[in-house]
């Protein structure tokens, strides 16, 4: 039997239950961090983009408003426009850096829709490649990511 190491998951597993409550919001903390110690890719006027700390795929990024808002209906017009422009910018960075074959781009609004942090809207930008789903996630329920998050964020920043 071969072992597959997902070293980056332990940080998520070890998060105290008190921090996993609906009141905890890491999205408010990320923009306060120094870029060298965060997964932040770029900032704009009303939002920022960062790598997902627990990605579905290599390069899985999010565009997140600075202001905590639970639904896109509650964004101001300026915030919504800035988020949409930032999604396009993030997609271009991922195209230039990773050359994906396609994308999944969208919002999970509410817990029923799969939102992990339902009280702060965010848009996922997930690069996809033909054949990126194979037996590992289907049978083994395991996703293999080819590059560490720290190396990925450094790579993406070179394409800003």
The strand order across the widest sheet is 1-2-3-5-4
Number of distinct helices: 5
Cα radius of gyration in angstroms: 16 Å
Q: How many beta-strand segments?
A: 5
CATH class: Alpha Beta
CATH superfamily: HIT-like
Average of pLDDT: 84
Instruction: Tell me the series of helices and strands, N- to C-terminal.
Output: HHEEEHEEHH
- Give the overall shape: globular
CATH architectural name: 2-Layer Sandwich
Report the helical percentage: 25-40%
Termini Cα gap: 42 Å
Q: In the CATH scheme, what's the topology name?
A: HIT family, subunit A
- Share of β-strand residues: 15-25%
Structural class: alpha+beta
For the largest beta-sheet, the strand count, sense and barrel status come to: 5 strands, antiparallel
Number of domains: 1
Task: Walk me through this protein's architecture.
The chain is of the alpha+beta class. It has one domain (25-157): HIT-like (HIT family, subunit A, 2-Layer Sandwich). Helix content is 28%, strand content 16%. The chain has five helices and five strands, in the order ααβββαββαα. It has helices spanning 9-13, 26-29, 77-98, 135-138, 149-157, and strands spanning 40-43, 47-51, 61-65, 102-107, 123-128. A five-stranded antiparallel sheet has the order 1-2-3-5-4. β1 and β2 form a beta hairpin. The longest helix is centred in the middle third of the chain and has 22 residues, at 77-98. 21% of the residues are buried. The mean pLDDT is 84.
């Amino acid at each position: 039997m071969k072992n597959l190491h997902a070293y980056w998951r332990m940080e998520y597993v070890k998060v105290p239950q008190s921090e996993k409550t609906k009141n905890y919001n890491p999205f408010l903390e990320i923009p306060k961090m120094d870029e060298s110690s965060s997964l932040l890719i770029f900032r704009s006027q009303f939002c920022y983009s960062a790598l997902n700390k627990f990605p579905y795929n290599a390069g899985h990024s999010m565009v997140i408003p600075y202001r905590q808002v639970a639904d896109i209906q509650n964004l101001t017009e300026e915030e919504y426009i800035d988020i949409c422009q930032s999604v396009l910018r993030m997609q271009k960075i991922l195209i230039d850096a990773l050359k994906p074959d396609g994308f999944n781009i969208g919002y999970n609004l509410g817990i029923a829709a799969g939102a992990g942090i339902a009280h702060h809207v965010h848009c996922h930008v997930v690069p996809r490649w033909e054949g990126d789903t194979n037996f590992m996630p289907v049978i083994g329920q395991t996703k293999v990511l080819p590059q560490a998050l720290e190396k990925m964020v450094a790579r993406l920043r070179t394409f800003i």
